[in-house]
Recover the amino acids of this structure.
C-alpha cells in the first residue's frame, strides 16, 4: 500500500477515536512523517471508495487479509530427499551438458551440477539451461572440440 494512503487511514482512525468533528478534506502537512513532501489532499469520498475495494462483505465486515504467496521450496526438499536415498555423489569438473530432444531442440547446460550413483545407475543434471536448436548446439560442440 502506498505510504501516503496509510497516513490518511491513521489520521482518520485518530479522529474517530477522539470523536473530533470530521472534515471533508484531510491535510497531511502536520504529519511529522511527511518530511518535506507536498501534502496530498484526500477527500472523504476517495477514502470510502478505496476502503470499499478491499472489503469482502458489506459495511462493518473485516477487510481482506493479504494472501501469503507460497514458494515451491517444498518440492526442492522432496527431490533432495529422494536423491539422498539414492546415494548420489557429486561429480566435479563438468563444464557443459547437452540433452537432445526429439523435436529438434536441445537443452544446453553451461555449468551443470552433476550427481551420480553407480549402484542405482542414476545421473542427475541440474542447473540453469538454454533451449537451443540442434544446429546451434552442434556448432558449439565443434567449437569446443577444436579448442581442446
Amino acid at each position: 500500500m502506498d505510504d501516503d494512503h496509510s497516513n490518511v487511514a491513521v489520521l482518520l482512525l485518530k479522529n474517530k477515536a477522539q470523536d473530533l468533528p470530521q472534515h471533508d478534506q484531510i491535510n497531511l502537512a502536520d504529519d511529522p512523517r511527511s518530511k518535506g513532501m507536498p501534502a496530498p489532499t484526500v477527500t472523504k469520498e476517495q477514502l470510502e471508495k478505496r476502503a470499499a475495494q478491499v472489503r469482502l462483505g458489506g459495511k462493518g465486515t473485516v477487510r481482506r487479509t493479504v494472501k501469503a504467496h507460497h514458494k515451491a521450496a517444498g518440492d526442492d526438499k522432496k527431490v533432495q530427499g529422494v536423491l539422498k536415498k539414492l546415494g548420489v555423489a557429486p561429480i566435479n569438473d563438468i563444464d557443459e551438458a547437452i540433452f537432445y530432444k526429439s523435436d529438434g531442440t536441445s537443452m544446453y547446460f553451461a555449468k551443470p551440477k552433476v550427481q551420480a550413483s553407480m549402484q542405482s545407475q542414476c545421473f542427475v543434471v541440474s542447473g540453469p539451461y538454454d533451449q537451443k536448436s540442434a544446429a546451434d548446439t552442434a556448432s558449439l560442440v565443434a567449437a569446443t572440440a577444436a579448442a581442446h
